[in-house]
What does this fold into?
Amino acid sequence: MGALTFELRNAPDQRLDLAPLTPTRLEGLKAKEIEALAIGTTRVNLTVGDAFTVKGKDAAELRFVGTDGRCDKIGAGLTEGAIVVEGDAGAYLGAGMKKGKIEVNGNAGVLAGASMAGGTIAISGNAGERAGGINVGETLGMKGGVLTIGGNAGSLLGERMRRGLVVVAGDAGDYAGGRMVAGTILFKRGVGPNAGYGLRRGSLIFVDEPKDLPPTFGDCGVLEFDYLRLLEHWLRANGKPINLGARARRLMGDMAVLGKGEMLILA
Amino acid sequence: MADLKIKGVTIIETFAEAFPMVGTRVIITAPSLEWALIAARTMTGFATSVIACGAEAGIERTLSPKETLDGRPGVAVLLFTMDTDKLQRQLRNRVGQCVLTSPGSACFAGLDGEKKLKLGASLRFFGDGWQMSKLVGGRRFWRIPVMDGEFLCEATTGLTKKAVGGGNLLVLGKSHAAVLAASERAVKAIADIEGAITPFPGGIVRSGSKVGSKYKGQIASTNDAYCPTLKAAVDTALPLDVEAVLEIVIDGLTKESVAKAMHAGLHAIAEGGAKEGVTHITAGNYGGNLGPHHFHLKEIVAWAR
It folds into this structure.
């Protein structure tokens, strides 16, 4: 039988907490047991069986079909396996995940990939604010892995990120890479105001020059970076073909804080 | 017993005695193959024998831009020593002095393996605090600011403890020119073998040594049994008409790579036949009690892997 599939019957009248639906926790459970799992977030009890039609058996790969923006915590804390979401995802998509793969063929809510430590998340649509940012109760944002956003990203993308790679194909909101500790964000289009605010270390790579650059970044001029060749090569090898070239204008900052971060604006 | 002959060249029934070594591979890239080769040649210079060089090293092969991590031309370098600590020190010093310094260079790991040697992880300190670490696909790289931009260097490279050093072939012939030409062919043939290098000048050594000496403190001295000028005075291994002997020494990441290289080298030497002037192919050993790896020429001739 195919992937264990959860098809949303109709729009739920409360937000759903789908954190229990991960390959690790569903492995070996019978269909009845899965349907009995509680996923409600209000005083009205709600089980998997109430909201979803469950099909398939293979718990190593989960499919969510027809989900909407109220389906929270899909793949949160994921440690293995793959999750495909055919629909939108709510808040906390893959938040705190350590390993595995999440693919969303729609939009994701706030805090997608927040404080994730490893694995990959690919969102084909937009991501809400604080994607790759700080999960509730954490002090750091994304700590590893790869987060790709096919559409636009909300504000505070990769806030206080520590490690890992974020790729945004669309526009990013304000304070992108804010207070970043380290890591890499690749912006294929524009960013809002205050990108790199409080950047300590880490790289913000821009295909297009941002409209307004913070005054606390210092210019190093246009230079050649073998690192960009390395990154381009890796992106190509991993199904994310892009032309970075090797030349970029390097801005160092944020000089208001540690100042060892950089913006690489492709030349 | 009839001697084994290939095209009239006698293959002496003996064996090459080789030793366990630790080895590693690094990939050097540069703006052009020429500059990658300059960095690689500099790094592998003065690395013929562990006796006094501290390491044995050589260029394994060149790499096309498609084969390297940064899409630039590159060179694969092999480095061998007798133990891990020495290998670490040699790697740091050689990459630090010869690759870091070379215009436009970058240096990457060339070997997997659970055990790692520090590469950029120790060279990063040259960056004096301005170095940046980048994780790409789970591998850590250091970007060290230098005067022509950045030296990109992977944090670690793997090491193998299964490396083998001292595989060898001795070429005997009636003229220096013939022996040299045959040896050059062997070095060329071995250059194509993955995981093997010939660390001596041009891959060839003319001063084969024996263990010990009549002088105190001299741990190795000339292999008089193979010196053509001493035929009358010592227990010589040479027929009267042999004018010169040259040796090809081979180090490899595995026993198999050394055997394969010896096979390729042996056949390349014999290719010219006896009419070229090469009379014998033999190998050096210490009686078989010192090194655990014995490459019998009889088996090497027929090696098929």
Remarks:
- Chain B has a mean pLDDT of 95.
